[in-house]
Fold this sequence. Notes:
CATH topology: Methylamine Dehydrogenase, Chain H
Number of helices: 2
Oligomer: single chain
CATH class: Mainly Beta
Largest sheet: 5 strands, antiparallel
Low-confidence stretches: 1-36, 391-415
Shape: globular
Number of domains: 1
Amino acid sequence: MTSIGRLLVLSVAVGCLHNGALLAQSAEIGHNPLAGAEVGTNGRVSAVVVFDDGSGPALYIGGEFTSVNGTPANRVAKWDGQNWSAVGAGINGRVHAMTVFDDGHGPALYVGGHAEDPANRLAKWDGTRWTPLAGEIEGHAVFALAVFDDGTGPALYVAGNFTMAGGRPVGNIAKWDGKSWSALDRGTNWLVFALAVFDGGSGPALCAAGDFTTVGDVRAENIARWDGQRWSALDTGTNGKVNAMTVFDDGNGPALYVGGFFGVAGDVISQGITKWDGKSWSAVGGTQGVNGTVYAVAVVDDGQGPALYIGGDFLTLLDGPRASHVARWDGRDWSALGSGVDARVRAIAGFDDGSGPALFAGGEFAMAGEVGANNIAKWDGNRWSTVGAAGANSPLRVSTDHSPLDARRIEGRYR
């Protein structure tokens, strides 16, 4: 690492320590002293996705909680625009990632997470019941999920910290085609936190990013590209870990936006957030980044048109506006979302719950703007609000699957 890289990562670390002092103010995650009743979740939210189980599109959240707005829900919950409900018997362990994939039997919600003992760290919800995938993932955790077609048909790609999938050595990333597992060469030499599909001019490819230095036989600092046959680096990558990625067109063509804990991308000073256009790295919007870490990057239309949103542990854009843990980039300017939220944002997604398009943010916070909202909140383009009201979900509505098989094979093997 260059001396400038060391200095920039150190500066990011100092910013995170400052943010940590603020996080300590809301250390008891899930409890908001300003709220008269429980509003939001009683633990962090790490993933947010939209899925239609056959009853219409709904917002699903995953994380480390056991209730939402007073409704019991084990680590996964559903918001249909009016009520929160549990998703079957849920998952007995931390959820890190969710996505929607059709394995030939219809679209389903796939949920990846964490476990200590050897287990299947990936489960499927079809709208009625939970089922495990054939062949276990052996290792520590699943952190990222994405759907990519390498020319042989769409498949689910699973990444994280694991060594085997379906009995095959895989090196932290694997492909599930709906029937069997396969490796992507030898995978990476360490953690993968994010996956995204991007066409940089030579055809669509799967980009994998995290905290690694090699992939297959290729030297690749924290980010690499898989074209279906081989791995390649994205220039010299980043000088620190990558947590999130998405594709956004700011008016100059689609580009890959990358967020994490780094100070340099290629040879460009760009702390926490940067842009890859398929050929080179650049800073985003004339700023040198944020004064902390980015954990979430997503494209959302909050009613003002599609824009790039970032969330994480930061308080301001360097050389830009103050933005507390969440910010918006419209292709020309950075802006804050009101007064933001009071602690870390881990996940962002867009959803219309019947009142118009809005942004939903999940994380480890107690306040959104002036509103008490534990770990999940809604931004409609003008103001923050809670997602539902405490006590609004009585009687409890729970989806149908409670089989002992699922409780044993899915829930009991999650941490």
